[in-house]
Specification:
The chain is of the alpha+beta class and 153 residues long. Helix content is 45%, strand content 22%. A 4-stranded antiparallel β-sheet has the order 2-3-1-4, with helices on one face.
């Protein structure tokens, strides 16, 4: 019984500490900031806990810098001159495919990678993969954390 009480006390204290410094985001504020409404008024009546969940959801998304997706890996090397080789491959890729965004990555201990594109599915990456493979025959599709898609288009 004491153990259960101690665990629940620690849980509520940690919950209070993590939620206290955050500014509470209200659903009303999000809708009020939208310019999509022409006239009219929206009145939202809801439990305060929903606003708390909304605040935590926004904070979690800020901490996560992308979404799960796919990229095309065109180079991977760990040789002594891997950095120079990766930069050369990236420069060649940019000159050959200027419309695709490329990324230079590094993994410990000495692994350099050059990846291209931001695709939500393997199917989306496949047409570009076929084009890239003609110039870079060792290219293949890999899973990666990709940038959030631009919804303004």
């Amino acid at each position: 019984m004491k153990r259960k009480l101690a665990i629940s006390t620690i849980f509520f204290i940690s919950l209070t500490v993590t939620l206290f410094p955050q500014k509470l985001v209200k659903a009303e504020d999000i809708i009020a900031g939208s310019n999509d409404f022409r006239g009219g008024k929206v009145n939202i009546e809801q439990d305060i806990r929903i606003d708390s969940l909304l605040t935590r959801h926004i904070a979690a998304n800020r901490a996560y810098n992308g979404i799960d997706g796919f990229r095309i890996q065109i180079y991977r090397g760990s040789a002594r001159n891997a950095r120079e080789e990766a930069n050369k491959v990236k420069a060649d890729f940019i000159s050959e495919f200027p419309e695709l965004k490329s990324y230079l990555g590094f993994d410990q201990p000495n692994l350099f990678k050059v990846r291209a594109g931001d695709y939500r599915s393997r199917h989306d990456a496949y047409p570009d993969y076929l084009k890239i493979r003609k110039k870079f025959p060792n290219a293949y599709i890999v899973t990666d954390i990709i940038n959030f898609p631009d919804l303004g288009k």
